[in-house]
Hints:
The protein is built from 16 helices and no strands. Helix 7 packs antiparallel against helix 8 (98-119), helix 10 (178-186) runs parallel beside helix 13 and helix 11 (188-208) runs antiparallel to helix 12 (212-245). By secondary structure, it is mainly α. The radius of gyration is 24 Å and the shape is elongated. The longest helix has 34 residues, at 212-245.
Amino acid sequence: MKALMHRxxxxxxxxxxxxxxxxxxxxxxxxDRTAARFRHRDVFSLAEEMYARVSxxxxxxxxxxxxxxxxxxxxxxxxLLPGTLCTAAVAAVHLTHGRSRLFAAAAGTLAVALAFRAxxxxxxxxxxxxxxxxxxxxRTSWLVAYALLGNGLLDGAIAGxxxxxxxxxxxxxxxxxxTPVLALALACAPAxxxxxxxxxRARRKLAASRGLExxxxxxxxxxxxxxxxxxxxxxxxxxxxxxxxDEPAAYAETLTxxxxxxxxxxxTTHGFAYAPAVVLTATAxxxxxxxxxxxxxxxxxxxxxxxxxxxxxxxWGAGSVPALACGxxxxxxxxxxxxxxxxxxxxxxxxxxx
Length: 354
């Protein structure tokens, strides 16, 4: 016990209650099995003894419990920027023709990408450690690009094309589906607010809980509620965008992609970046493999490669490929999130830098 106290002395001295020590121990890999070696039934019981044993300076003021994060105007406005710029870009593409449309699309893509970068750098969607570069940008860009161009390319490839490059319209030989991308850009603000709501409520429950199991039981419905709230906001935005642009809503592929990106970001903001990176990579790879299988099937003796994709597209449409890939990935991340984001260590305040 003395060695354990010495190893976590700083954690014990700054803790305001045993639950904060338990969260810190859990973050350092201390489990109930480890606690049993010290004759305690679980980590929280061990934390209670450590909290009682630690020597504190009687003259020092008792540290206050960590306050829940508050909404700030800077990140609230930044989350509106991607949707605003994407709306302007879509309008510019629809109102221009020829080379002007190409310039408008290129400028709009760059502006929206920079807006997303700014929105993800501040506020509840930002990484806890900004010194570590993000590794999911390429995968996310591919998934969004597929939502814009993938279905049209897949349909054209199965039909023997495409015979030309995209013209920026929904009725061309390689049609664009702008509704999902616009809805996802507008959903950046609801994603930030729901993530903020989840973090703030979880911090309050962390302060009020009396054990790790109690905290997990309280946070689990909060996580599901936050997830459903975001999907509801995305569905409403998708319906609105489809009505304004007079395009199909594509609910299945858009909602599954939105769920995947939201869960991946929520896990990343709480320090669990590995699983989202792996799942996003697998999803992007699966979508690329579906396209590659159709094009490879044109080689002599390789026609069988496209059979699964063609069967799927013929039965449920081209949107079934991203819907199946993103839906499976989102379900895997949701299961992972219920394990990771219900831990007290995921919501413990960051340790002060030395």
